[in-house]
């Protein structure tokens, strides 16, 4: 609806990994041109239920999204050391700003056949949650449970989740024994038990006051 009225582009933003004991917080920002919504995308039906999707289904949707020519995306993340230094909220918002700025700079979307997407164009940023992104120029709107209500945010959520899961699977090989490939850094009973046995590793968030 925003694209049909006053805006040239809509950017959806979401993060994953906020509550994890280990690993980065990952952010994805996606931008759409209006013609994307003028077409039917039956292969993306069900995408709005991202929280209920299996890992396999999320990967399928992610693969379909990243080849869409009328959608662009950027991923940014904050490492545990940054989270420990400036706290998880500030780290996630810093990553959001980086993802959005890079998306706006590198998207290549054209407006009126000559101008590229920039802060001077009519661009609306939609962010999941109840708080806007501090320090970000331009218009934005915070939407509670946005990943279930807004298609652009749902797309960002899925891409970010798949990206982070792959990162944690790689970390599992580098730091074996914690089960990162299974719980992806969340505080499961198994993860806490392994923390008690092995102590923490470099990708654990010390500021989360790990208890084991």
UniProtKB/TrEMBL annotation:
Signal peptide start-end: none
GO biological process, one term: mismatch repair
EC number: 3.1.26.4
Location of the protein in the cell: Cytoplasm
Catalytic activity of the protein: Endonucleolytic cleavage to 5'-phosphomonoester
One cellular-component annotation, GO: ribonuclease H2 complex
Residue stretches making up the RNase H type-2 domain: 8-212
Alphabetized PROSITE patterns for the sequence: RNASE_H_2
A GO term, aspect molecular function: RNA binding
Keyword annotations of the record: Cytoplasm, Endonuclease, Hydrolase, Manganese, Metal-binding, Nuclease
Cofactor(s) needed by this chain: Mn(2+); Mg(2+)
SUPFAM superfamilies in alphabetical order: Ribonuclease H-like
Cited CDD domains: RNase_HII_bacteria_HII_like
Purpose of the protein: Endonuclease that specifically degrades the RNA of RNA-DNA hybrids.
Protein name: Ribonuclease
Native organism: Candidatus Yanofskybacteria bacterium RIFCSPHIGHO2_02_FULL_39_10
């Amino acid at each position: 609806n925003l694209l049909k009225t006053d805006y040239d582009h809509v950017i959806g933003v979401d993060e994953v990994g906020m509550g994890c004991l280990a690993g980065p917080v990952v952010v994805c920002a996606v931008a759409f041109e209006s013609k994307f919504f003028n077409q039917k995308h039956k292969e993306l039906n069900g995408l709005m239920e991202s929280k209920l999707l299996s890992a396999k289904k999320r990967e399928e949707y992610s693969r379909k999204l990243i080849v869409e020519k009328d959608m662009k995306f950027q991923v940014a993340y904050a490492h545990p050391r940054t989270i420990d230094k400036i706290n998880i909220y500030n780290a996630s918002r810093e990553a959001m700003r980086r993802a959005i700025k890079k998306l706006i700079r590198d998207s290549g979307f054209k407006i009126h056949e000559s101008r590229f997407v920039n802060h001077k164009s009519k661009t609306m940023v939609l962010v999941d949650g109840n708080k806007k992104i501090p320090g970000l120029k331009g218009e934005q709107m915070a939407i509670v449970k946005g990943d279930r209500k807004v298609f652009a945010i749902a797309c960002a959520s899925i891409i970010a989740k798949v990206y982070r899961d792959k990162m944690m699977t790689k970390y599992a090989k580098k730091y074996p024994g914690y089960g990162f490939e299974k719980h992806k850094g969340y505080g499961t009973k198994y993860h806490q038990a392994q923390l008690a046995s092995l102590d923490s590793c470099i990708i654990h968030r010390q500021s989360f006051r790990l208890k084991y």
